[in-house]
Design goal:
- The complex is a heterotrimer.
- By secondary structure, chain A is of the alpha/beta class.
- Chain A folds into two domains: about 150 residues, D-Maltodextrin-Binding Protein, domain 2 (3-Layer(aba) Sandwich); about 210 residues, 3-Layer(aba) Sandwich (D-Maltodextrin-Binding Protein, domain 2).
- Helices cover about 45% and strands about 15% of the residues of chain A.
- In chain A, the strands form two sheets. In chain A, strands 1, 2, 3, 4, 5, 10, 11 and 12 form an eight-stranded mixed beta sheet that branches. In chain A, strands 7-8-6-9 form a four-stranded mixed beta sheet, sandwiched between helices.
- Chain A is globular, with a radius of gyration of 22 Å.
- The N terminus of chain A is likely disordered.
- By secondary structure, chain B is mainly alpha-helical.
- In chain B, the strands form two sheets. Chain B has a two-stranded antiparallel ribbon with strand order 1-4.
- In chain C, helix 2 runs antiparallel to helix 19 and helix 14 crosses helix 15.
- Chain C has a two-stranded antiparallel sheet with strand order 1-2.
- Classes of the chains: A alpha/beta, B mainly alpha, C mainly alpha.
């Protein structure tokens, strides 16, 4: 590293931070936020910081820390970043406050879609959505005269043709890493079959034909994948795409931008976005959102300042600075080609991720329990029965079922 | 040494251990026998969530905890005896599997699957670490004075490297077409997927552990080699003892206390194997006891965690280590009695 | 013993030498390889062809690389630093540090060497090569593609320098307190033949076998709410322990105590008891005897034990990631934070650079202390 460049970089960043401080107001109240650490949050918290007196904590362990830290009195953080599932513990414990008054005063510009309401109370402001949808190598499909697959079965058929033609190492990619990722794959597939995971009494309802069909579909997909699929998270699948090793994947919308990044990708301009392939009932996908909550164990004055700062963070300026960081819900975002897949998936009726306390447990036990089926140690019925048994043990311990 | 003086010397250390280890240990012990859970109620709620273009609103029955007057979740604690241990051990399924003589069925129960791997991992790596460590120590001792310094330096590298970074390096070097996988493929002339079946992962995990710990054993043994009694070596040479006999009859007995020390540390650390499972993304194939504890403890997205089962499994891990250490402890006791 | 009797047959020497070389290769390879990766563009770094990783064609195509001259000078600087550290530093430290503060002297020396290296390597060297490269023709032409931009990203944009400072605070705290408390306890245990002493050691051993994740998860709620439950005792000023380096230091010291007292106890047990008993006969109290007689001779063992404490504190992930705020995080959890939901390939190479950055101080440390480790262990710190 040359000293000159260091100095230049230092000078540039000083200039940048001095020039870009465009916050509508001067924040006087010391504020702290706790959010996850990915790119969109970085963009948002950077913009919040322009208002002054603000400390952003982008933390990988936020899931573990948030419930505890917001329950402290006074809360250790004012602003929290949550997703639909991670909002549940805060909501349950009553440690985030209703935002109705604040939205009325400072949030008139928010679109109704951004207001996450529970029983009429606005509890969170969503800023982005994310879902898994089909990404495919347009050049390969064209060369082989393949239609863009619209259903999961068509996708598997296309994969078979691609494998036959031997143009890439593996026709399919998939975020099948054991744990949360694999659980999410099953959730998507089961939702696509029209299934519900638990009933009104929190009893599991996955050990049925839909469950078995979902498992079988997942297993059918794995034969077209890199045999190391149980270790493949979304970063890995994205890399496989970038290095031209796979032709199709049902991958997170937030990863779309990376396909056209000339720094990393060898397939710039070749990857096209489409709706998630359809299952029997709905697309094999689920819709997630990320957004902002405000703690309840803080003074009203702090809450007001926190909300105003948060609004600065999720304003049009952020979207213009980092349009590719996410599929924003914020005013001023123009969905380009890369967001087409996310939009089409939503239009085709993808269901929202059914976040709840019981679903939290279900997702974990699914994530841990499916691998033995995929690598052939258990049959589908046993797998689902074992998963339901594991669910019951956890749910009983958590007090969700008697 | 008078008890009062003794207390003054060891006091601060004991105090810190009591506060930060013993006290939490008591709560772990307690938690393994009770279950604390929120009191839930079921209510009908209308939720509106963000879609891409428009909101989705649904009305559904939802279970949520009851809050008390001060706004905190009302919890109830119930004594359940050994029920949590039962939940971890799943003895019913265990006996069934034993009755059927079905290894597969046994290996489908999390705890026994984890125990199988943990024990195997511990017992296979132990002799390897001692053996490789001793071999390295001997060859370093045998090397010329000039290169000893750099060689010791290089040898220590695997030991000092941060475990998290070690695990990351594995990913960088082995995953997919990682450089070492590419090398193995070239060498064996076949396509490899090292992360696609249990045995290759287990093999790599053991190799990694030996790579990581052998330097510690080596440096300890090397230090021990410096104090081997030269006189007895000399007389052995005069008596015509072969190199191998000298090693077996003089050097190894001299190193015995060190071998025990390293074995003890290694047993304790290896029985808690965890980083490797995460680093090698092995959860889909093999799990360890400490990973099981960690998994119970990690909250899912809705914030549920199984504190009770985590506590029970931690207690079981401790008991396991205690059993493994008994022979070594007996010896320490004899030494202790002998030296005073 | 006569040299002749000890001389080994050639075959044995060859086998022994070959094994040593093989081991050194295995030991050093992963670290050396990730060091190479950290200087390449993402495309080169994860290439499956090793030659591409080493020579970095894509990186060179981007216009950054090193010439023979630069490589030569760079290696020279590294070599000189290593020599200085191993050969010249020990006598200098020994002569300049006041008695009893040798450890402090070593820390100062390590920091100075580190700083000097960074200044020369990253500051002076580029200036020199910029001047010389155009003059030297083929020697000055880039032959290997390499870029330091990832280090720039890590240290400047990602603010790794703050994490480095936090790591420094935590490790210094842990090593100092751990050794102070542990030395006293180790001495006490070594000189007491009571059954109580034995059981303390055994219980400490059992404590050591506790899975840390369980302990740490127990701390979190207590530390976060400490302002509430400490209020009756400390009143208004009751601190929130969560996010405080001091709290993390205390936890790490406690977790490390069992190992520390075992090490130090066996070290002290090997110092003849006659030494301090003689002092006691002269009328010294136990503490005075400890200070006057034992302290001067205990450094080899203490330095070795201190090094293990250092490694534990520096390498810790579990405690620091959970009990520290993102704003005062140490380096190891910070690197884990680089792997998140949206990790890109570039992020990964940045993480590689961060990994090398974390390892570099350990390098320096082992280089400085390797003699002390061996002599400390030899002096008996590990005799069961």
């Amino acid at each position: 590293m040359k000293l000159k460049t260091i100095l230049m970089a230092g000078a540039m960043s000083a200039v940048a931070s001095a020039g870009a401080a465009e916050c509508a107001f001067e924040n006087e109240v010391p504020l702290r936020s706790l959010t996850a650490g990915f790119e969109a949050w970085k963009a948002v918290t950077d913009n919040m910081a322009e208002c002054g007196n603000f400390e952003a904590n982008l933390d990988q362990e936020f899931r573990e820390k948030q419930p505890e830290a917001f329950a402290a009195d006074p809360s250790l953080y004012h602003i929290g970043g949550v997703a639909n599932s991670t909002m549940i513990p805060l909501l349950n414990a009553g440690t985030i406050r209703p935002l109705n008054d604040l939205v009325e005063e400072y949030g008139q510009h928010l679109s109704p879609n951004q207001l996450i309401t529970v029983d009429g109370d606005i509890m969170a402001i969503a800023m982005m959505v994310n879902n898994q949808h089909l990404m495919y190598r347009e050049d390969i499909l064209n060369d082989l005269d393949l239609e863009v697959p619209t259903t999961y079965d068509e996708m598997l058929e296309a994969a078979a043709v691609i494998q036959e033609a031997d143009v890439v190492e593996y026709p399919l990619g998939g975020t099948f890493a054991s744990g949360w990722n694999l659980g999410e794959e099953f959730v998507n597939m089961f939702l696509a079959h029209g299934g519900d995971f638990v009933d009104d009494n929190n009893m599991p309802t996955i050990n049925n034909e839909m469950g078995i069909a979902s498992l079988e579909k997942l297993k059918a997909a794995t034969q077209y994948m890199d045999p190391e699929y149980l270790a493949a998270d979304s970063t890995y699948v994205q890399q496989q795409f970038q290095q031209g090793q796979i032709a199709m994947a049902n991958l997170w919308a937030s990863r779309a931008g990376a396909m056209d990044d000339p720094e990393e990708s060898q397939v710039v301009g070749k990857v096209t976005m489409a709706s998630a392939p359809m299952g029997p009932e709905a697309p094999v996908s689920s819709i997630w959102w990320d957004g902002i909550v405000i703690a309840s164990n803080i003074t009203d004055e702090e809450a007001e300042a926190a909300f105003r700062v948060a609004m600065e963070g999720i304003d049009t300026e952020t979207v213009q600075e980092s349009p590719e960081a996410a599929v924003w819900l914020i005013d001023g975002y123009e969905p380009g080609d890369l967001a087409a897949g996310a939009a089409a998936t939503a239009a085709n009726g993808a269901r929202p991720y059914p976040a709840s306390s019981a679903m939290g447990i279900m997702h974990s036990v699914l994530g841990n329990g499916i691998a033995p089926y995929l690598n052939g140690n258990k049959d589908a019925e046993t797998t689902l029965a074992d998963i339901e048994a594991a669910y019951m043990t956890s749910a009983e311990e958590a007090g969700l079922v008697e | 040494m008078k008890p009062k003086v003794f207390a003054a010397f060891v006091g601060p250390s004991i105090f810190m251990m009591l506060l930060f280890i013993a006290f939490p240990l008591v709560s772990v012990f307690w938690n393994s026998f009770v279950v604390t859970q929120p009191v839930y109620e079921t209510v009908e709620v209308e939720n509106c969530t963000a879609g891409f273009l428009e909101q989705t609103c649904t009305t559904e029955m939802e279970t949520r905890p009851v809050l008390d007057e001060s706004g905190e979740i009302r919890r109830q604690t119930e004594f359940v005896g050994f029920q949590t241990y039962q939940n971890v051990l799943e003895m019913g399924r265990f006996w069934e599997a034993v009755k059927d003589r079905s290894w597969t069925a046994l290996q489908n129960i999390d705890f026994w699957k984890a125990l199988r791997f943990t024990l195997m991992f511990t017992l296979v790596t132990l002799p390897l670490v001692l053996g490789v460590g001793l071999a390295i120590a001997l060859v370093i001792n045998n090397a010329s004075q000039k290169i000893k310094g750099p060689v010791i330096f290089l040898s220590l590298l695997p030991f000092i490297i941060t475990p998290v970074i070690g695990a990351l390096s594995i990913n960088w070097l082995f995953r997919g077409d990682g450089i070492l996988t590419a090398f193995l493929e070239w060498w064996l002339e076949q396509d490899l997927a090292l992360f696609a079946q249990a045995w290759t992962i287990e093999l790599m995990m053991m190799f990694y552990r030996v790579w990581h710990v052998a330097p510690f054993a080596a440096i300890v043994f090397y230090a021990g080699l410096q104090t081997v009694n030269q006189d007895s070596l000399e007389s052995a040479v005069i008596d015509g003892a072969s190199r191998w006999q000298r090693l077996r009859l003089i050097v190894i007995p001299h190193l015995a206390p060190l071998l025990i020390f390293v074995a003890m540390i290694h047993l304790m650390d290896t029985y808690r194997v965890f980083e490797e499972v995460v680093g090698f993304r092995a959860e889909g194939y093999v799990i360890s006891l400490q990973w099981l504890t960690y998994d119970f403890l990690t909250p899912d997205q809705a914030g549920n965690r199984s504190i009770s089962r985590a506590s029970a499994s931690a207690m079981l891990t401790m008991i396991g280590i205690a059993i493994l250490l008994v022979p070594l402890l007996k010896r320490t006791w004899r030494d202790h009695k002998g030296s005073h | 013993m006569t040299a002749k009797a000890l001389r080994q047959p050639a075959s044995l020497r060859i086998v022994s030498g070959a094994f040593l070389a093989f081991w050194c290769l295995i030991a050093a390879f992963p670290i050396a390889w990730i060091a190479v990766m950290s200087f390449k563009s993402p495309v080169d770094a994860f290439d499956s062809n090793p030659l591409n990783v080493i020579f970095g064609p894509a990186t060179r195509a981007d216009g950054s690389g090193w010439s023979i001259l630069e490589i030569g000078l760079g290696l020279a600087v590294i070599w000189v630093t290593a020599r200085l550290t191993v050969r010249r530093a020990p006598p200098l430290v020994a002569s300049y540090s006041p008695g009893g503060y040798v450890a402090l002297g070593w820390i100062v020396a390590a920091v100075l060497i580190g700083l000097g290296f960074v200044l020369v390597f990253f500051g002076l060297l580029p200036l020199v090569t910029d001047l010389l490269n155009p003059i030297l023709g083929p020697l000055g032409r880039d032959i290997i593609g390499a870029t330091t931009e990832h280090y720039q990203t890590v240290w400047i944009e990602r603010g790794f320098i703050d994490n480095f400072r936090n790591s420094l605070i935590v490790t210094t705290g842990v090593v100092t307190i751990s050794l102070t408390v542990g030395t006293l306890a180790g001495y006490g245990l070594a000189r007491s033949g009571s059954t109580l002493a034995f059981w303390i050691l055994i219980i400490a051993l059992i404590f050591r076998s506790l899975p840390h994740s369980v302990l740490v998860a127990g701390y979190l709620p207590v530390f976060i709410n400490s302002a509430e439950w400490l209020a009756p005792i400390l009143g208004e000023n009751a601190p929130t322990l969560y996010g405080k380096p001091a709290a993390v230091i205390a936890v790490l010291v406690a977790i490390n105590q069992p190992f520390t007292i075992w090490m130090l106890r066996s070290f002290f047990a090997n110092i003849p008891a006659d030494l301090d008993e003689a002092a006691r006969v002269d009328g010294c109290s136990h503490f005075k005897a400890f200070r006057l007689v034992i302290m001067p001779v205990m450094w080899p063992g203490v330095i070795t034990t201190g090094l293990f404490s250092f490694l534990l504190a520096y390498n810790d992930f579990l405690v620091t990631s959970l009990l520290l705020d993102a704003s005062n995080q140490t380096m190891v959890p910070a690197i884990a934070g680089m792997f998140n939901r949206e990790t890109t390939t570039t992020d990964q190479v940045v993480a590689v650079a961060a990994a090398v950055s974390i390892t570099a101080p350990l390098f320096l440390l082992v280089m400085v202390f390797q003699r002390q480790i061996v002599s400390g262990l030899t002096a008996g710190a590990v005799k069961g």
